[in-house]
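Record passed on here:
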Amino acid sequence: MKKIILFLCFVLSACGFKPMFYGQDTDIYVAPISGINGIELRNSLNAKFGGQREANAKYTLTVNLHVPETQYKALESTGDATWQEIVLNADYVLTVDGKEIAKGREAASESYSFVRYLVAANASYNNAVQNTIKVLADKIGTRTIAETYRYENGGADKK
């Protein structure tokens, strides 16, 4: 497997391919996000951007994380829920020098087993929330890096 990856890297580098963030400084400040889930999302985003930056960073990412929504996905004949889905939505705005260069809304969801035992049900829910936050951070982080790359390379919004 390692040989295949090395071969692909060699082939791609020979044609002039370079990764989008190659040599890029992701100088992105992630503004504080309210709530415990917001803290987790901010930490995940900072990790994706290579560490926490100061408020005077070139780019500022502001995220509004909505309250998690849960939906029943499966019910027993007794009416008890056996599966639920957690959905997290977040709106974000990316600015540079106070100018908005990108905004959007991302959503992530995960289903989890809902059992009658309170401790197990809470653990299942918490794991689903953590996994959903990681997916949300990947989505927002990837879009943010792409927008900073586009801006740095003369994107349509750069004036």
